[in-house]
């Protein structure tokens, strides 16, 4: 696309040419020269800026869901945020993570292929420490996982995929499932070394322990749903209309919902001494007259005014008036 110069830019250019600061012949040579841009085939660009923005939005929701989940499970302060979303070769990702780390290899049907949720050992062992009743402190020296630690970590991280499923719902109905838990990146070859991946990096803080959680999504796995990551899908997609059957089922469920209804006979204020001195036969004066209507509340909201009575030897109340919106203040007075 040709750039359009403003009048001020045109005047500045003419002035530079007339003063000799710029040479017209040199400008012509620059225009005739071929513009070459270096392209690294090992770092092929497979994700557009639009795709990166969409992945960022999705995993910001994922980070919020994880924060809620881990805070509830570990019963301590947990903070998880998206640091960056980038694309790079799979081999570069493997070389960037520790030699001993927690690698949750999973699949997400209906997508074909495997993805990885990498958790820094500091974060993973802090979680295990909290689950076992500790303060959430990672050990200074990390060795191979014991059988108990492996089972606990599988239990913790298998539940995180429910949060991932919820975050991706706006784009696709995925069913992530943990396939294996590894600790050595060299034994994990899910795609070829030069395959482009989307790497979502999440900074994680558990109490005083900090570390990273990285989500590795190969391009070849996510390619079938790449068109859904466009702005068009996010903002122009049609809303799903409810079928008559769904509306009918929803109405039935709402009709079965139970709400507390309370008829207030009145109020009274007693001192602690008067309350302790109450005996059988004592009378407590209320702030309501006998001929005054009773306030009937549905939940915490005033809805009706009624009169007390009885039906077949059971206490009852008759609705005399429906309180309209905005009229509640009059009755409060």
UniProtKB/TrEMBL annotation:
Membrane topology (UniProt): Peripheral membrane protein
Is the keyword Cell membrane assigned to this protein?
yes
Q: This protein's superkingdom?
A: Bacteria
Primary site of residence: other
SUPFAM superfamilies the UniProt entry points to: CheC-like, Surface presentation of antigens (SPOA)
Under PANTHER family, the record lists:
FLAGELLAR MOTOR SWITCH PROTEIN FLIM, YOP PROTEINS TRANSLOCATION PROTEIN Q
Q: Which NCBIfam families match?
A: fliM_switch
Instruction: Give the UniProt family note.
Output: Belongs to the FliM family.
State what protein this is by name. Flagellar motor switch protein FliM
The organism named in the record is Paenibacillus beijingensis
